[in-house]
Amino acid sequence: MSSATTQSGLSRARRGVAPGGSGPVPGKRKSKLSAQATRTFFWLLLPSVVLLVLIHGYPLIYAAVQATHDGNLLQTGNFVGGQNFATVLTSPAFWKAAQFTLWFTIVGVFGSWLVGLGLALLLRTKIPAAGTFKVLLLLPWVVPIVVSSTAWNWLVATPDSLIPSLFRNLGMGTPLFLADPNLASITVMVFKVWVSFPFMMMMISAALASVDTTVYEAASMDGASRWQQFTQITLPLIARSTYISWILMTIFCVNDFPTIYLLTGGGPVNATTSLVVLAYRTVFQDFATGPGVAIAFLMTMTLVVISVILYRQIRKSSVE
């Protein structure tokens, strides 16, 4: 069967089952809300909107005030304008933390997504004790982070821990997973993937559950290989869910304080200090509120930009 015929069959299959596909939806009619219904919705939503503005608006304004002053936790201090932001942006510690945060986020997002995708696809097949297997896979996400970090410390923290002892017995030396800067960075990233992949697995499993399995049968009849079905049917159909999970996981990674602080405390020699850990240290250990809040504002602006970019991808992900 020719490649053109296969591509045509894959396109027809996607249009048949994809949400937002280009095919017409029978019986669908456009409806317009009456003016009275619009006003009713407005007044029903207004109290919630006002409450959200008050809850989130006041801390944001107060934080902006602190970011433009040279005060501490007790006093606002004098107005310094953008000096705190200039101090932060010219600090080597900030850029080192930003570099680690970038790699931590990339590995955390795509590492957990790849593991979650693989397990979600595996769970669609018939495997023994599937229910028990699903519960076990959710444990890294369900177990409190304090318990997980304590367990990982027991496994890798000292030369006499289980995993370093295993390496030593195999004649591979005694790696210091939390004492060597490079190994500590890798360990923290792997730990993040470990605690995050169940979330990705659930998101992808929910998206895959909405895909009609007959679309794969139709694609097979058109001569599509397993790889073509995966890249041209599975991935496009779960694209929206994928982008949403990437947005959420990016926010989780950039703002992740306990995963890093409980495992390494930001060490050794600040090798695993992320921006959020640096902001915490600056405010609560150095008592420099202005620069610490400035770091938090820069993190927030970066997350907004990334979220907008991925949100636009969600809107473009309608299957054609």
TrEMBL record:
A Pfam short name: BPD_transp_1
Main localization category: membrane
Membrane topology: Multi-pass membrane protein
Classification via InterPro entries: MetI-like (IPR000515), MetI-like_sf (IPR035906)
Domain ABC transmembrane type-1 per the UniProt entry, residue ranges: 98-310
Region listing for Disordered, in residue ranges: 1-30
The keyword Transmembrane belongs to this UniProt entry's keyword annotation: yes
Subcellular location: Cell membrane
Keywords associated with the record: Cell membrane, Membrane, Transmembrane, Transmembrane helix, Transport
TM stretches of this protein: 41-65, 100-123, 135-155, 191-210, 292-311
Biased composition (Polar residues): 1-10
Family: Belongs to the binding-protein-dependent transport system permease family.
Name used for this protein in its record: Carbohydrate ABC transporter permease
Organism: Arthrobacter sedimenti
